[in-house]
Design a protein that fits this description.
It catalyses: RX + glutathione = an S-substituted glutathione + a halide anion + H(+). The chain is α+β, with helices and mostly antiparallel strands. The protein is built from eight helices and four strands. It has two domains: about 5-75 and about 195-200, Glutaredoxin (3-Layer(aba) Sandwich); about 80-190, Glutathione S-transferase Yfyf (Class Pi), Chain A, domain 2 (Up-down Bundle). A four-stranded mixed β-sheet has the order 2-1-3-4, covered by helices on one side.
Length: about 210
């Protein structure tokens, strides 16, 4: 039996997509959560000086999207055809671009970096949302299944879901203009295996 160990900070962040893929597949894994104060000791031991890291069969895989793609292919959440897999990868990369554009809001809000979160929200987050979310809505309408690609949840759905859930923890009205994305959030989170995971996981705002 394959032993999986996923190492990431003791909050949701970029590691949560990977944890949720294990939950969806009903596959056991070692959920190694690193406290922020322990990170300076752990960092030099990591391949790229960052987390998450997946350990499997003696190999260590860094980078959150690489891990998500590997697990999604392994467990059947990467797209059901080669074309769908390419589309899912494209959406995953696009969502990542959007997240990286907005990430300093969270860093300022949580004290990981010094800055004005309210100014960042107004000047960076809202413009990024207004550019990207209409594209998401268009895709959801055109696909018609409630998911981004195909008729089954993929790692790209999880990626989008976890990001907007985190923003809603800080701003409950973040999706008020985008009911289609709110419906997507609910559809994904109502998947029984994922709902069970969300109910039992440690509670964090981010």
């Amino acid at each position: 039996m394959v032993h999986y160990k996923l190492t990431y900070f003791a909050f949701n962040g970029l590691g949560e997509n990977c944890r949720q893929l294990f939950a969806l597949a009903n596959v056991d894994f070692e959920d190694d959560r690193v406290e922020v104060e322990d990170w300076p000791k752990v960092k030099p031991t990591t391949p790229f000086g960052q987390m998450p890291i997946l350990e499997v069969e003696g190999k260590r895989i860094p980078q959150s999207k690489a891990i998500a793609r590997y697990l999604a292919r392994k467990f059947g959440f990467a797209g059901q055809t080669e074309l769908e897999q390419a589309e899912v990868d494209a959406w995953g990369d696009q969502i990542s671009d959007y997240i990286m554009e907005t990430i300093f809001y969270f860093r300022y809000k949580t004290g990981f970096a010094s800055g004005d979160p309210e100014a960042e929200f107004k000047n960076v987050v809202i413009p990024a949302r207004e550019r990207f979310f209409p594209i998401v809505v268009k895709q959801l309408k055109e696909n018609g299944s409630g998911y981004l690609i195909g008729n089954k949840v993929t790692w790209a759905d999880l990626y989008l879901n976890n990001h907007v859930e985190t923003f809603m923890n800080f701003d409950a009205g973040y999706l008020d203009k985008y009911p289609e994305i709110l419906a997507h959030l609910k559809k994904v989170r109502d998947i029984p295996a994922l709902k069970k995971w969300i109910e039992k996981r440690p509670k964090h705002k981010y």
